[in-house]
Amino acid sequence: MFWRRVPAKRQAVSGLLAGALLLPGSMGAEPQPSNKNDSYYEPLPQETGTNGLKLMLRKLQTTGRLMQVTAHPDDEDGGMLTLEARGKGVSTLLMTLTRGEGGQNKLGSNLFDVLGVLRTLELLASDRYYGVEQRFSRVADFGYSKTADETFQKWQGHEVALGDMVRVIRTFRPDVLVARFSGTDRDGHGHHQASAILTREAFRAAGDPKRFPEQIAEGLQPWQPRKLYTGNVCGFFASSCADSNYTLRLNTGKDDPLLQTSYVQFALSGLRHQLSQGSGSWSVEPGDRFTHYKLLDSVVDSPKDKNGHEQDFFDGIDTTLPGLASRLGDEEKKVPWLRGKLTEIKAKIDEAVAAADRDPKSAEAPLATASSLTIRAYNDAVGSDLSAAAKVELREEMLSTLSAHIEEARALALGEQLTATVDAPVGTNPHDAFMAVPGQSFELTAQLSSKVSPEEPAHISLKLPEGWKSEEIKSATTAKDTARFKVFVPGTAQVTRPYWHRHDPERDTLNTIDDAKYQGLPFAPPPVEVWAQSGRHTLLHATCMVRYKNDAGQVQVRPLAVAPEFSLELQPSTSVIPSSQRGSTNVRTNARDQSSGSEAEVSLQVPNGWKATPPQEKIEIATDQSKDAAFQVFPSNLKEEYTHISATLEHSNSKYGEGYSVVTRDDLGTAYYYQPAVQRVSIVDVKVPKDLKVGYVMGAGDETPTVLEQIGVDVTLIPAEKLATEDLSKYQTIVLGIRAYDTQKGVTQNNKRLLDFVNAGGRLIVQYNASASDFNSGNFTPYPATMSRARVSVEEAPIQILEPGNAIFHSPNEITQRDFEGWVQERGLYFMSQWDSKFTPLLESHDPGESEQKGGLLLAHYGKGTYIYAGYAFFRQLPAGVPGAVRLFVNLLDGRQN
C-alpha cells in the first residue's frame, strides 16, 4: 500500500503568522508542489511510532545538507546515503543524471523510455530506505559509453547537464557536494566519468552569478557549497585503501538501533527494488564495510589528523541550529537577536529529545514551543532590514526545513495520521484503478486519526490544481475528524504523465521538458492533496489515494491520477514490412473510455497510396472498459524506407490521438507512459526462406520474435521448461533470446539437448548473456570459448566482413557495408574474447582507439549442424526496423547453409 502521514514538507508552508500554523488558503498561503519522493508511500516500519519520532529528532539536531551525484539508477552509494540521512539526520539529496533508459531490462522486453519510467519508480522505492530526496537532469542514458568525451558529444557538450546540476544545487543548497565517481578511467562507463567531471565543475559554477544567469533571472540565488568530495578513489570493491587516496572513511556496516540493522543492510533492502537491474539477489555480508571519499575542493578549513583524514563530511562546517545565523555572513549584524532565538529553539528540541526516551507523547509540548518560536523568529527576520537573498535563505532553512520537520515530529509524538481516499467503483479495472477525468467529478474522504485526544476539532481542506473546485459534503453522521468532499475536475485539467519525453527514444540523447515547473523532479506530483490542522494545532498533509481491489481481490491504493476521457493505442506499435509483400497487413486499435461509456469513431491515417479498410469504424465503449477496432491496411509501391500509420478517435467534435500504459509493480508506485497512437513502419527489402521453421526460446525478454513473424518467418515460442520434451527436430533453427542462460533454468538444464539438436543437423543461435563467468563455467558451447564483457558501444563503428565468401553474407540476402548503416544505440555486447580454432569469426568491429574485436559473431560446424554465437545487438536493431540488421539476422536463421 502506498499512503502515508505526511506533515508539512520542504517548500510547503508559507504565509505563517507568529504563534499559529495556518491552513493553506486561510491567509492566502499557497503550498508549493511537494518535492519529496515518498509522498504517497506508506511509511516504513522504522519511520513509525517511537522509532520514527527519534529519527525525525535526529534531523532537528543538524542543519547539514549533502548532495550526491551519480549517472544512473543503482550507481548510488546507498550505505553512505543511509548513514548520513538516517544515522545523522542530514538533509540528503541524490541527483541521478539519467533515468537508466538505455540499459538492459532484466525483467522483460520494455526498453528505452518506458524502461526509464520503470527505473525511476524503482529508484524512488530505494530512496525510501536511504531517506533521501531525488532529482534528475535532462540528459538520457543512450547506452554504454567508454569515454567521457563520447558522452559529452552525445549530450551536446557540458552545458545541458551542468546547468541542470547547478539548478538543483541552487535550489537544494547543499553544504557538501559528493561525486559518486572519480572522473577518471577507473570509473569505467563514460557516463560515470562525465557525472564526476560535471560535479567538479558545478561546485564553483553554482556560486557564480555569471554562470547560467537565466536561473538568477528566474529568482534563484547563487549558492556555493562548502566542500566537494569525489568517490571511487580506491575502486568499488577495495578491501583496503592507502591513506593518501582518501580523506574520509565511513563505516556503513555499523548497526543503528533505530533501523535495527546496519546502514548498508538497510540500504540494500531498498536497492533490491531495482529488479530491472537484477538486484533482487544482491547481498552484503554483515560486519564492517567502509566507503572512501577524497576532498577535492573546499571554501572552509577543516581539521585533519596526521594522515590527512577527516572524521565527517561536515568537519569545518557549523551545522548547529544557532549556526544558521552565520550563514547570513555580514548581514547577521542586522538581526543580532537571531542567534539567541535559535539557541532557544535548540534548547526546546534538546528537551524533546530527552522526553522522547521517557514518554514519546511528552516530546510534543517542547516541540510545539519550538514551532512557535521558529515562526516568530522567521517573521521578525522578514520584517527586518535583511536583503531579499538573506530572507530567502532563512525561509528555506527555518520554514521549509526546520518548521516542517518540527511539525512531522509533533505528529509522530501524538500518533497523528491523515489519510485521503477515493473508493474506486465496484468492477473498476484494477490495472487503471479509478482515474479522474476532465469534465467529471468524484468524491473523496479525508480522515485524521490520533493516539491522543484532540483539544479541538480538526480543520481539513483541499489543495487543488488551478481551475479545480470542490465543495464539502456535510452530514450529521460524519465524525468530527473526518471530512468528505466532492471535487470537480475542469476540462482543462492536465493528465498525469511524465513531464519529459523524447521524440525518437532510440536516437535522441536529450529529453524535452514539457512542463518547466517540474524540471528535475522524478515525476509531477499527484494532483490532489489534503491539508489538516489537528486539534492539537499540528499541520499535516496527505496525498489523495484511490482505493481499489487488484486481480486477486486484495485492497490496494495508488495516488489519484488524471486520465484523458479517451485514450487510443495502435497495435502493434512498430511494424516491419518486407518490400515484396503483397496483400494486406492487420492493424488493431484499442480505445479506452474513462468516463461514462460512449460511442466514438476511430480512423486510420496511412501513407499516400496506401488504403485502410474500413477507413473509419464506429465503436461503443462501456464505462471504464476498452474496445478494439480491426483494420486491414493495403500497402502499395513499397520501397525501403521508414514511414508510419496513425490513428485518431473522434467524439463530440473532440479528437484524441494518444494512449498510455500503466507502469507499476506490487513493490512500486505507479506511473503512466504515454505514446502517440502511431505505428512506426520500417519497409525492408528482405528475402525470407520458404518453409523455414524457427523455434525461439525467450530469455530476459525481447521483441525479435514479433519482428520475425511480421516479415513472414514461421516462429514458434518454446517455453524454456519444455525444452526437455519438445520435439526439436521439427525446427530448422532454434534461437535463444537475450540472457537466456542467465534467466532460464530450462536452458541451462537442457543445453546438452540443444547441442544434440545441432549435432543432428539443426542450427542454434545463441545471443548475449550478461553473466559471463556463469556462462563460461557452464561450458555451454560445443567447443571451448570464453565470453567477455567486451563490447562495441559506438553504433556507427566500422564493421569488416572477415569471411566475405561465407554463405551467411549471400543467402538469401546479399550483405554489404550498407547493411551496417543506421544501427541504434550500440553494435554489440559481451563478445567472445577467446575461442577454439573450430570457430570462425565472421565480423570485426571496435570502438575508436581500441583493438580489434572479432568475437561478436562466431560460427562453428558441430556434427551435421551449425552453432552461432551472436553478440551483435539484434535485440535492439530488429524492433527498430534497421533494414541491414533484419537482412543479416534472416541469413543467420537460414538452416539450409549447414
Per the CATH scheme, the topology name of the largest domain is: Rossmann fold
Question: How many structural domains are formed by the residues?
Answer: 4
| Low-pLDDT residue intervals, each spanning 5 or more residues | 1-35
What's the architecture of the largest domain, going by CATH? 3-Layer(aba) Sandwich
CATH homologous group name of the largest domain: LmbE-like
Helix content: 10-25%
- Briefly note the structural class of the backbone: alpha+beta
Helical segment count: 18
Gyration radius from CA atoms, angstroms:
30 Å
CATH class call of the largest domain: Alpha Beta
Proportion of beta-strand residues: 25-35%
Please give the alpha-carbon distance between the first and last residues: 56 Å
Report the biggest beta sheet as strand number plus sense, adding barrel if it closes. 9 strands, mixed
What would you call the shape?
Answer: globular
Chain-averaged pLDDT: 91
What's the total count of β strands?
Answer: 45
Walkthrough of the structure:
The chain folds into 4 domains: 1-5 and 416-556, no CATH class; 64-311, 3-Layer(aba) Sandwich (Rossmann fold); 566-683, Immunoglobulin-like (Sandwich), CATH 2.60.40.2310; 687-897, Class I glutamine amidotransferase (GATase) domain (Rossmann fold, 3-Layer(aba) Sandwich), CATH 3.40.50. Helices cover 23% and strands 26% of the residues. Mean pLDDT is 91; it is low at 1-35. α9 (338-358) packs antiparallel against α10. The protein has 18 helices and 45 strands.
